[in-house]
Structure formats: structure tokens, C-alpha cells
Amino acid sequence: MSLIKFAHASDLHLGAPFSGISKTEDSDIKDKLVKATYLAYDNLISKCIDNDVDALILSGDIFDLADHNYLAQQKFKQGVEKLDSFSIKVFACRGNHDPLDGWDPKLIMPKNYKEFGPKVESFPVFEDEPNKVVVHGVSYPTREVLVNLVEKEFSQSKINKKFFNIGVLHANVGNNSEHAQYSPCSISDLSDTGHDYWALGHIHKRQILKERNPAIVYSGNTQSRHRNEPGEKGFYIIDVDENKEINMQFEAVDVVRFVDLSVSIQGAQSIEGLCRKIDELIMSQYRKSSSIDLVLNIIITGSGVLHEDFAKGRYKKEEILQIINENWANKTPFVWCGNLILETSREINREELKKRDDFVGNFLLEVDIWKNNPQKQEDILEIIQEELYKNNKFSKYLAGSFFKDLNIEELINHADRLSLSKLLREAPDED
Fold first, then answer.
1. SS3 state at 119
2. Residue 403 — very low, low, confident or very high, per pLDDT cuts 50/70/90?
3. Which of 184, 229, 249, 413 is deepest in the core (most CB within 10 A)?
4. Distance (Å, rounded) from C-alpha 138 to C-alpha 145?
């Protein structure tokens, strides 16, 4: 027997624009990209109804309030009203993109909607059985919440452990460096509160940090908006039995999916042969994705005869990008290549080169040491940071997140390829 079945979603970012794919001139594609967050929300509402859930829990960043997007607010209200007609409750907290002091058009929401305030509030899911399942949550009063809300709010709030208790929070758990450190906390902080399930928002990658006692879950965002968020996006359906055992099921709702594809130049004797390989790879992905529109990030890798042509600019990646998009953009659903990266290398036997008793051999041995030594990587990062801050031309561009976002392994690999090209008297890659 089910105690409760609820949906957990977060980071809808309704109406927020896509980034990094503005080069498309196709009006149909642009129209789909503009509507994507709304269509994903429509899918979320429909799946809540189809799965007969008791409640939908939203863990912040429903909107980007800085955009003053009235349409997004209305779309959201319409979805909540539709759920109300099926007696489905909605519980929502506000995050850093939609804090309580942000722009507010003062919409009158239906009776099934409960929004948490700046202090922890608790609402029963079933009004006729108030002691069965209780949802506890807190909203961001302002955009930047840098304190640990678990310690400040939830730890001070008494809960009855006889109930099934759901915590709703927009937070950075475990110091995730890819997202801002808003409401930073740890898994142990969350576990110590006594809640049974933590519905988290803020991190766009779905992940289950802890499966039980308590379950700690990021549902991820419902629709990707740039190429750094590849793969399926959606929400979790949580089915809890009378013994508080939790079953989680992921449901995809995204309508435009970002996909990373890697294709090697190895074995391709001509640019036409490489383009055929790319087409075959795209077709395989297209068949897997069914009715989902695709935005691709294609990485051309490997070693082979085409590397020299790329290195010397005989084939420009902008031209390859144009050919791919002319071949695929008119499909339904569409395929659009928004980014193409060249990471090719000349055909070399690295292991043989490392055996050489000269500068090249010693260089490659030293690079391998740097690649496999985190301490040396930290050392080189400190040197880079120190040297750049000394230079007035660069220091003014170094925001707080610059070094945090720097991928040192990628930097070493790129320097390795560039240096080896020069050492072997070959022109370096354009990129």
C-alpha cells in the first residue's frame, strides 16, 4: 500500500533563454528553443497527472525573476491550476534565481499551491490526515544566501519522526564547484535533521546523494539550456510505501536535448570520408532519441592524415559546421550542431617517442608525471594564478570563478599537443 506518491522537480527556469547557440538562422529552430522550457513544464504537468501523484514538489528556480517574464509566471500558474483540477498539491520553495524579494506580478494562485517563506514552514500533504506526510521547506529571502540553511533553519525546527517528512531546499551540498555556493551544507547536515526525503534544487545534474535514511536527491533541471548540460533532463517520481520504503523513478520531460558526440579522424582518408562518419554517428543518435530535438556538441579527435589539413587551415571548422547543419536542420525533430571542436593530432607513436634519449623523450615523460599527479597540478595552477595576477592586462579579467572553472588537466593536454607539434616541427592546431 502506498503512503504517498509525489513528483520532485527543480530548476525549471521557465522562459529563460538558451546560450551558446545563437548562430542558428532557422526560424523554426529558434521558435522551438524559445518554447522549450515551457514545453518541458507542460510535459512535467502531464506526467504528474498520468502517474496519479499526490503532490508535486518544486525545489527552487522556477523562474529567472531578473527577466521580468510575465508570460513565464502565467504559464506556471496555468500548470498549477491544471494540477488543482486533478486534486494534486504543489509545494514550492524559492531559490537564487527567484528569491522572495524578486520581481512579483502578484498573481493569485489556486488553493492547491503552497509556497514556503523565509523561515521553515510545514504543510501536510493530506488535509484529512495531517499526521501522515508533512512537507517542510524554506525559500531564499534574497538572491545570495551564503549561510547554511540546514543549520540555521531546519535544525531548529522540530519534526515528528512518526510522520513521513519531506525537506525542500535549494542548496549546494558537498561544495559542488560547478555551481555557486548558496546555502552550502553537507550530507551529514541533512541526515541529522531526521527527515525521510530531501528534495533538493540548484544543481542541474540529477544525482542521488543518498538512497535512504534519508534519501537525498537532486532531480536536476527539466530542460537543458546550454551544451554543458548534456543528456536527459526531467524529474523523479517517488513512491513511498507504508513502511517508508522509497522507490524512485526518473522521467524525462525535456524537448531539446544537448548531446556530446566524439568522432575520430582515424581511418578517414578525406574530408568527405570524415563527414560520412559524422553523419553515421548523428543518425545513430537520432534514432536513439526518438522524438527529441537535438543540439549537438561534436568533438573531432584522434590522429590521422587529416590532422595536417586541419592544422594548416585547409578545412575550417565553420565550413564543416555549416555542412552538418544544412544536412540535418530540416529534419523533424531537428538536429542542430551548435558547436564543433577540433582536438586532432598527428599520427605518432607516443610510447616510442618516450624511449628517445633526447628532449622530446624527456618532455613526454615529464608531461605524463604532471598528468597523473594532483599535487603537481595544484602547483602549476598556483604558478599560473600568481603570474596572471602580476600582469595588469590580465588581472582585471580574473573574476572569482575564473580559476575555479579552470580545467587543469585539459590545459595540460592542450599544452602537450601544442608543444609536441612544435617539437616535431609541425604547425600547431588553429584552436
1. coil
2. low
3. 184
4. 12
Q: In what order do the strands lie in the sheet with 215-218?
A: 121-124, 133-137, 164-170, 197-201, 215-218, 207-210
Q: What is the 3-state secondary structure (H, E, C) of 375-387?
A: HHHHHHHHHHHHH
Instruction: Examine the domain organization and report whether 44 and 149 are in the same domain.
Output: yes
Instruction: Please say whether the beta carbons of 84 and 76 come within 8 A.
Output: no
96: closest CA among 138, 139, 129, 125?
139
What total of structural domains would you count in the chain? 2
pTM: 0.80
Given a contact cutoff of 8 angstroms between Cβ atoms, the answer to whether 142 and 99 are in contact is yes
At 400, is the pLDDT very low, low, confident or very high (cuts 50, 70, 90)?
low
- Do 248 and 282 have their domain in common? no
Q: Tell whether the model's pLDDT for residue 428 goes beyond 80.
A: no
- Alpha carbon separation from 204 to 13, 15, 222, 232 (Å, rounded): 11, 16, 9, 11
Q: Do 294 and 274 lie in a common domain?
A: yes
| 247 shares its domain with 265 | no
The answer to whether residue 28 sits within a structural domain is: yes
Residue-wise pLDDT tens digits, 334-383: 999 989 999 988 777 778 888 888 888 888 888 888 888 888 888 877 88
Least confident among 70-74, 119-123, 319-323, 391-395: 391-395
Q: Which domain holds residue 353?
A: 256-423
**Cα–Cα separations (whole angstroms), residue 162 to 39, 133, 195, 243, 292:** 39, 9, 10, 11, 43
The beta-strand segments (E) located in 279-353 are 293-303, 335-345
Same domain membership, residue 314 and residue 166 = no
Q: Which three cell numbers stand for residue 388?
A: 596572471
In a domain, 431, yes or no: no
In a domain, 126, yes or no: yes
Residue that is last in its domain, among 252, 267, 291: 252
DSSP labels for 34-92?
HHHHHHHHHHHHHHHHHTT-SEEEEES-SB-GGG--HHHHHHHHHHHHHHHTTT-EEEE
Average pLDDT over residues 191-212: 96
- Cβ of 59: how many Cβ atoms within 10 Å? 28
Average pLDDT, the chain: 89
